[in-house]
Amino acid sequence: MKHPDMYRDEEIVVLGLAKSGVQVAKVLHEHGAVVTVNDKKEREQCPEASELESLGISVICGGHPDGLVHEGVKLVVKNPGIPYSVPPVQKALELGIEVVTEVEVAYHLCEAPIIGITGSNGKTTTTTWVGKMLEAAGMNPIVAGNIGTPLTQAAQEASPDNWMVVELSSFQLKGTEDFRPKVGCLLNVAETHLDYHGDMRDYVDSKAKLFANQGVSDTAVLNWDDPYCRGLVPGIKAGILPFSMSEELVQGVFVRPSYVPDTEDDLKRVIIYRDYTESETVIAEVASIGLPGRFNVENALAACAVAIAAGADPAGLAETLASFRGVEHRLEYVAEKGGAAYYNNSKATNAKATSMALASFRQPIVLIAGGLDRGSDYLELVPVLQGRVKALVALGQTKDKLAHVAKLAGLKTVITVDNGDSAASVLQKAVQEAAALAEEGDIVLLSPACASWDMFTSYEVRGRIFKEAVHNL
């Protein structure tokens, strides 16, 4: 797309009245565009509509009317979650009208260098961690996007002295054309969101758009242990700064000695940064990291690599590695009840995320899982359930699938919770069932392996109801 100034007196359609849609509509209106915002929800479900209309922005609720998108429209900005199959998007594509997400608009407005962080798992934790590292280094970060301030608002407020640290989803990246982060980071790739993307190729291609416009003066931070990430290397023009748990790198951030799962030698491991001259800096001991779990060691490596790529001193990262205690709904400690420790990992919306969470504990686990059925078979959970999980409490659309997988893994105790009067009551019942199974020294872990939308409006709502249920035991 062009800079928003170039759309003065031109028609733009914004699809979706979520937080990002409201903000991008305001920004484009301020730059002189003729903006129409459309949302399929009924008017009473769109409280933001009145505010936009008071500014002179047209708002249409209750469906997608014929003629919304026509030859006179110059740009469509859609909410990332809206699929490309909806009629107004299809019409725009047929007419050759550019369809973008808020990320593209914000990029054209932002004067600060941008750090873009994406991946199937760990985005929010790593993005927040990078923000803390840059803050400690005096580099004036602004954390925005899916977390923090809406991206277009933050982009307008940023100056060249800031660093914009942005969590990005595949949905957002798919709708970009010119977006070019100074530092782009791909944490990992797992089979997820296939209901939106259709297949893994489209999903990976969408993630890869993070690097599409980077040049030799930019940096691509890649997980060297992930085959999908390494597979993108031939198409990347930026300088590559890899991170690895399992390999000593010629250049990059890695663990020495290499991380071996299910061993207890963390005290002997250190995080190393090796630069292009092969000079090494010991960043910190692995045991000093403030978050539990192997996957959080991986997130720590990624955060260090991103911060170093932005100019932070690798020798100054240890304190933030130790002091950061994580983000809500990401392996969040809730309470101890009856000698068992309860953890909220509601953000685990795919099987890989749940596998990573399970691998973080050596104690016996009572697992609460289940949610929206996106067509996965969850068979990849079988090996990680074996020997780690003593019981499963399953709920939601996928409860029977997960119960089947648990039985394949040899679990003798599998409970399914039927739908009740409300989603909250179902989850409360699941917590009560798990509590009855848990013994002193056990872990009770909510790690659903599924999105929340079959029962809850978001994983945040699901996580908070879980925490309330635990406190009420």
Keywords:
9-stranded mixed β-sheet; alpha/beta; UDP-N-acetylmuramoyl-L-alanine:D-glutamate ligase; 20 strands; Protein-Tyrosine Phosphatase, Chain A; 473 residues; Rossmann fold; 3 domains
CATH architecture of the largest domain: 3-Layer(aba) Sandwich
How many domains? The number is 3
Broad structural category: alpha/beta
CATH class of the largest domain: Alpha Beta
CATH fold node name of the largest domain: UDP-N-acetylmuramoyl-L-alanine:D-glutamate ligase
Supply the number of helical segments: 17
Q: List how many beta strands DSSP finds.
A: 20
Q: Taking Cα atoms only, what radius of gyration do you get, to the nearest Å? A: 23 Å
What percentage of residues falls in helices of 4 or more residues? 25-40%
Strand order of the biggest β-sheet? 7-8-6-9-10-11-12-13-14
User: What is the average of the pLDDT values?
Assistant: 93
Main sheet? Answer: 9 strands, mixed
Amount of beta strand: 15-25%
* CATH homologous superfamily designation of the largest domain: Mur-like, catalytic domain
* Coarse morphology: globular
Low-confidence stretches: none
User: First CA to last CA: what distance?
Assistant: 53 Å
Question: Could you characterize the architecture of this molecule?
Answer:
The protein is 32% helix and 21% strand. It is α/β, with parallel strands linked by helices and 473 residues long. It folds into three domains: 4-100, Rossmann fold (3-Layer(aba) Sandwich), CATH 3.40.50.720; 104-323, 3-Layer(aba) Sandwich (UDP-N-acetylmuramoyl-L-alanine:D-glutamate ligase), CATH 3.40.1190.10; 332-471, Mur ligase, C-terminal domain (Protein-Tyrosine Phosphatase, Chain A, Alpha-Beta Complex). Strands 7-8-6-9-10-11-12-13-14 form a nine-stranded mixed sheet, sandwiched between helices. It has a six-stranded mixed sheet with strand order 15-16-20-17-18-19, with helices on both faces. Strands 3-2-1-4-5 form a five-stranded parallel sheet, with helices on both faces. Strand 18, helix 15 (399-408) and strand 19 form a beta-alpha-beta unit. The mean pLDDT is 93. One of its GO terms (cellular component) is cytoplasm.
